[in-house]
Specification:
nine-stranded mixed sheet, five-stranded mixed sheet, Jelly Rolls, disordered N terminus, 287 residues, 14 strands, alpha+beta, elongated, 7 helices
Length: 287
């Protein structure tokens, strides 16, 4: 069983050309905007936990194109103007069935910003007041000028064809009381179109702009310098070249062409220049 997953990314489809970012990359589904407009999105405030009951009769035909089956959906609208969001999604094991979640994250214009497959969820065993459940924790930082982001939770035909093994309650009790677990079979739980989804949203007040290459935020990273193949001495770059890169990065940011700005930074750092990166960090959230 893998460790609990925490995925960090930026909802940057308005500024970036990253169609799908997740712990396990999956093909980006296509959803007709008219179908999205028909969905009843449930508003979720910060620090709020909501429970959604899903039943088979709530199947949505539009999911067939990317899920292989008409799946019930849980649809949430979350404020996107209050910094980094920590979102926990859980699906409870109900008696002998389990709804296996997959997640699509959309920006304020219903562009798909990220996808998460069932492989990004971890089985957590019964503990305290919480029963066996699948769980994933998402840490998302929406870019500026978005009021809301949207989460769509569904299951797939591939997941429905499988089952999940959970520990027998007698084993759980034995471990909790420090006794030797009995030698009995664990329980096979069938995957289902019915289930319970719990969503918990909290703000982290994190100003770090997540989703760009992580080295951009490492202020201690040594800058690359070009050295002579003969004497390994650093080549000094003239002021005109440095000025060119500084201006080009600023121009790319004003045009909201982040990919171009990043390419310019990479080229500048090959020449040993550090100011283009500093300009980028100072202005990326203001343009």
């Amino acid at each position: 069983m893998k460790k609990r997953l925490i995925t960090t990314l930026s909802l940057a489809s308005l500024l970036f050309s990253y169609p799908s970012l997740a712990g396990h990359l999956t093909p980006t589904p296509h959803i007709n905007s008219q179908e999205l407009a028909k969905i009843q999105w449930q508003d979720v405030a910060l620090t709020q936990e909501v429970k959604t009951n899903l039943v088979e009769k709530q199947q949505q035909s539009f999911t067939t194109a990317f899920a292989g089956i008409a799946s019930p959906v849980a649809a949430y609208r979350i404020p996107a103007n209050q910094g980094t969001l920590n979102i926990e999604i859980e699906s409870s094991v109900l008696e002998k069935n389990l709804f296996v979640p997959n997640v699509i994250v959309l920006d304020s214009h219903f562009n798909i910003a990220a996808t998460y497959s069932s492989a990004d969820f971890t089985l957590l065993e019964e503990r305290g007041l919480k029963g066996n459940r699948l769980s994933a924790e998402l840490k998302l930082t929406p870019v500026a000028n978005q009021d809301y982001i949207y989460l769509l939770v569904y299951t797939t035909k591939q997941d429905l064809d499988k089952s999940t093994t959970i520990p027998h309650p007698a084993k759980v009790y034995a471990k909790a009381t420090g006794k030797q677990p009995p030698s009995i079979k664990d329980i096979e739980v069938k995957h289902s179109l019915s289930g319970e989804i719990y969503l918990n949203v909290n703000g982290l007040n994190d100003s770090k702009f997540i989703g760009l290459p992580t080295t951009i935020f490492n202020s201690h990273q040594p800058q690359t310098q070009i050295a002579s193949a003969h004497n390994q001495r650093t080549t000094k770059v003239d002021k005109d070249t440095e000025h060119y890169f500084n201006q080009a990065v600023q121009k790319a940011l004003k045009a909201k062409d982040i990919n171009k700005a990043l390419n310019l930074i990479n080229e500048a750092e090959k020449l040993g220049l550090s100011t283009p990166r500093q300009i980028f960090l100072k202005n990326v959230n203001t343009n």
